[in-house]
Write a structure and sequence with these properties.
The complex is a heterodimer of chains A (304) and B (213). Chain A is of the alpha+beta class. Chain A has eight helices and 13 strands. The longest helix of chain A is centred in the first third of the chain and has 21 residues. The termini of chain A are far apart. In chain B, 21% of the residues are buried. Classes of the chains: A alpha+beta (304), B mainly alpha (213). At the A-B interface, helix 2 of A face helix 5 of B.
Chain lengths: 304, 213
């Protein structure tokens, strides 16, 4: 016998499909507005992308409570605890250097440069753990093309906000602040390289690098610089924070490579957060088909 | 009554199990994002803490003049061994999945693992000879053998120091405590206050209660 509990939804209560779709459009449009208002965990949906991995993403809790973001402390729990002091609105990103049209962008302008996409990417930390993360963002290329790079633009340098009032971790001299990262121009323009502004269909939480961060899924996590305030196109290879801190341990390229060990630990395997046993690390974090050609002819043990 | 409880070995025995119970509870709760990393770090940290506690007994005895501290030393040392073995077991199983070729490579190639392994190996003879019978059998050589605790503690701190990615503040604390504990002994040796016997002699000749303090 079918027992109908009072909680059951009546067919008449189910939203008609066209209304539902309309609502979705409304939500997408509203997302930008909500972002302006700086609401906590405002919706920020992205359209599905063919670049997304088919793996099951880690939980929101895992992604937002286990972070490396030294500006808020060096333990994995520190960023979730301390990043509340970061003010992500208003936010400006200076894009300068070898560009025909250098420009300072407000975060709202960046969100309009290209349709927001959901990119489910593997993230492999240099420490030997990994996650699968559903980012929302735009290709970095869409921002770079907007400033019209000159022929001299061979590299892109990035900088994180450097404000001790908002970032308690800056009081420690553990790294040479501001945090700096860099990419070669072809890496920066690669379609896999994105600027992420959201996570799990919502505005990026502060501990994950709000309001805007880089995601380069075939490189170790520290290359994916957080809370970006400056992007500079330049002819020379930029200095990068971890390379400055320990040049023999962290190279400029830092492509995920199971064959090249960190001087103090092996990179052959990784622990996927949520899994009991370790799994094998893949060359270029499994993105070799798309990116291996960028490094053709390069000795990756030398350019690690 | 309270003093008796504090002096009873069983209280300290149970207290020393708390780090293990805490880890088991947190694992059971399932809230840890990277549980393997947590139990690896936690077991290693507590092995080091118990090593330092073991080394603190002699200074405590000399400072307080109460020789009762000695009754806890063996237990503390064995707990250091216990947590170190847990630490190593987790590494063998959950980190290396008993891949012996990889483990041997790891021990040879990575200095922080080499020194950690060495510290554990040196602890084994101390654990084996920790019984009263062994103490009697080895006589003077027992004390000599158990001086291995000094290099073991140094190796353990170096092991921690070398594995840290960048922020050395935590290993620095352990290094500072170890420096204090070893420094106390150096001072005692320099001034000749090596043991209870000598200290009592000094006390007999001096009006001050604690000449070393």
């Amino acid at each position: 016998m079918l027992i109908r509990r009072p909680g059951d939804i009546l067919p008449s209560e189910i939203t008609p499909k066209d209304v539902f779709l309309n609502r979705r459009q409304f939500m997408t449009a509203a997302a930008g507005t909500a972002l302006l208002a700086g609401e906590a965990a405002a919706a920020l949906k992205g359209i599905p992308s063919r670049y997304s991995a088919s793996e099951q993403p880690n939980s929101r809790k895992e992604i937002t409570s286990y972070n490396n973001f030294y500006e808020f402390g060096t333990s994995k729990e520190d960023p979730a605890r301390n990043a509340g002091s970061l003010k992500t609105r208003p936010w400006q990103v200076v894009v300068e250097g070898e560009a025909g049209k250098p420009k300072t962008f407000g975060i709202e302008e960046i969100l309009k440069l290209a349709p927001l996409e959901e990119r489910i990417y593997r993230l492999r930390c240099v420490e030997g753990w990994s996650m699968v993360i559903p980012w929302v963002g735009i290709p970095l290329a869409s921002l770079l093309k907007a400033v019209q790079p000159t022929g001299n633009a061979k590299f892109v340098a990035f900088e994180t906000l450097n404000d001790p009032k908002q970032m308690p971790g800056l009081a420690s001299r553990v790294l040479d602040w501001p945090y700096r990262e860099g990419l070669r121009m072809d890496e920066a323009l690669h379609p896999l390289t994105i600027l992420a502004v959201g996570l799990y269909g919502e505005v990026l939480p502060n501990q994950n690098g709000a309001p805007i961060r880089l995601v380069v899924p075939w490189k170790y996590g520290f290359k994916s610089i957080k809370s970006i305030v400056r992007i500079r196109l330049q002819a020379q290879q930029p200095a990068t924070s971890w390379n400055l801190a320990a040049p023999n341990e962290y190279g400029f390229y830092s492509n995920v490579n199971p064959a090249v060990a960190h001087p103090r630990w092996s990179q052959a395997t990784e622990r996927r957060i949520g899994e009991f046993l370790k799994r094998k690390t893949l060359p270029f974090n499994g993105y070799g088909d798309q990116v291996a050609r960028l490094y053709q002819g390069m000795d990756l043990t030398r350019f690690f | 009554m309270l003093l008796r409880l504090l002096q009873s070995g069983s209280l300290w025995f149970v207290l020393s199990l708390l780090p293990l119970l805490r880890a088991v509870f947190l694992l059971w709760q399932g809230e840890l994002v990277n549980p393997v990393e947590f139990i690896t770090r936690s077991s290693g940290t507590w092995a080091l803490v118990f090593l330092l506690l073991t080394l603190a007994i002699t200074p405590l005895r000399q400072m307080s003049g109460w020789s009762g501290w000695l009754q806890y030393r063996r237990m503390l040392g064995l707990y250091a061994f216990f947590y170190a073995v847990l630490h190593f077991g987790i590494y063998l199983w959950l980190d290396q999945l008993f891949d012996w070729a990889a483990i041997v490579r790891d021990i040879i190639e990575r200095p922080f693992i080499t020194v950690g392994m060495l510290a554990l190996l040196l602890l084994i003879p101390l654990a084996i000879t920790s019984t009263k019978a062994m103490m009697r059998r080895l006589k003077r050589r027992w004390g000599l053998l158990h001086r291995l605790i000094y290099p073991i503690a140094i190796l353990a701190v170096v092991h921690f120091w070398w594995l840290v990615k960048k922020d050395l503040s935590e290993p620095m604390i352990y290094a500072a405590v170890l420096a204090l504990l070893l420094g106390w002994r150096c001072r005692a040796w320099l001034f000749g206050f090596t043991g209870r016997l000598k200290q009592q002699n000094v006390r007999a000749h001096s009006p001050r209660r604690d000449p070393a303090g």
